[in-house]
Design brief:
The protein is an alpha+beta fold. It has helices at residues 56-64, 106-116, 121-134, 150-162, 180-197, 208-214, 232-237, 242-247, and strands at 18-27, 30-40, 45-49, 71-76, 79-80, 91-94, 168-172, 200-205, 217-222, 225-230, 252-259, 262-264, 270-272, 277-283, 288-292, 299-308, 311-318, 321-328, 341-346, 353-355.
């Protein structure tokens, strides 16, 4: 049985490249970040994940230096950067819109930051060529942004940051402008590139599938706070709060009563808990079974079903509430039809989570 305490601010370690320590940010009377703490290790990709307005982009902008927090510290390699000007922070930002200069060539866009630093032309040319090769755009340096596809423009934006050799790479929803098929391919390509270069990165998205693909760890945010920081599989399998469970993936919730350290499930099985009294129980759809007919204590009526590749998704109404079940499609077996009575069961009680109501 999963039962995880509410996540507290993560403790930063001395080995962390980036340490965010108790950062709070306000705009007037509105608090948009509250006591956010996070550590990011060398070569790690950490995603800030949450719905619009949760504070993830604000936190990224504080790291970049566009805004300064009212409280807390942002340390890179042990040095607090809160008072460091934007152009002197060892970070690079890839924006949603890519922010490429349309009147400059690809090579000129990539070399722009190096020119602002006053580097010699020969060094700029060599570093731009290396950056183009890194993002697989060799031979396209003379083109203009309008002559490139969306995916190529994104790689130019990434190369423009990489050429500056930042200590921390910041990516603000960089796939928003791409279509669904290209997004999936670019997610894998970008993760592999960041890992190959050994870079430390903060990735911001509201898309949970994107976060699960890109991340070594995910920081789930809610209303300016960090709810849980953990690897993707732990976030999905052992969500620390009901909010995280509901936000990540699909979840079934129902009310129950905890007595003497046990919770009785609707199908008659039980699991242990340290809570007492009214509780909420959560199970993922793939942890529920479904059989046609009235075969057990947890019965319901099938409202809707649809095939999802090799799986079938069932929507069932029960006395415990409406449930979703994901099961393997078995063409030879008898399939229930909408309106039928079906019996549900919990496959593994240990994969359920228990929360306070």
């Amino acid at each position: 049985m999963m039962q995880v305490p509410v996540a507290k601010a993560e403790q930063a370690t001395s080995a962390a490249v980036l340490r965010i320590a108790a950062v709070s940010k306000r705009f007037g009377s509105m608090t948009v970040l509250q006591d956010c703490s996070l550590s990011v290790a060398e070569g790690e990709i950490v995603t800030l994940l949450g719905p619009s307005g949760c504070g993830k982009t604000t936190l990224l902008r504080c790291i970049a230096g566009f805004w300064n927090p009212e409280e807390g510290a942002i340390l890179i390699d042990g040095q607090d950067t809160v008072q460091t000007p934007v152009n002197r922070r060892p970070v690079g930002v890839v924006f949603q819109s890519y922010a490429l200069f349309p009147h400059l060539t690809v090579a000129e866009n990539i070399g722009y930051g190096l020119r602002m630093r006053g580097l010699p032309k020969t060094e700029i040319a060599a570093r731009v060529a290396a950056a183009l090769e890194t993002v697989s755009l060799s031979g396209l340096g003379g083109r203009y942004p309008a002559q490139l596809s969306g995916g190529q423009q994104q790689r130019v934006a990434i190369a423009r940051v990489l050429v500056l050799e930042p200590r921390v790479l910041l990516l603000d929803e960089p796939f928003n402008a791409l279509d669904a098929k290209l997004r999936g391919a670019m997610q894998v390509d970008l993760r592999q590139l960041i890992k190959r270069l050994g870079m430390t990165a903060i990735f911001v998205t509201h898309d949970q599938e994107e976060a699960l693909t890109m991340s070594d760890r995910i920081a789930v945010m809610r209303a300016g706070r960090i709810e849980q920081v953990a690897p993707p599989e732990e976030i999905f399998d052992r969500p620390a709060t009901a909010y995280v469970a509901d936000f990540i993936g699909s979840s079934n919730f129902w009310q129950a009563e905890a007595q003497a350290g046990r919770v009785i499930l609707p199908d008659g099985q039980d699991l242990s808990t340290s809570l007492t009294g009214p509780v909420r129980v959560m199970s993922r759809p793939h942890n529920l079974s479904l059989q046609p007919g009235a075969l057990g204590p947890w019965q319901g009526r099938l409202l809707f079903q649809r095939s999802v590749g090799a799986l079938v998704e069932y929507h069932v109404t029960t006395d415990s509430g409406d449930m979703r079940v994901m099961a393997m499609r078995r063409p030879a077996a008898r399939q229930p039809v909408e309106g039928d009575t079906v019996t549900l069961g919990v496959i593994d009680p240990g994969l359920c989570a228990v929360y306070e109501p």
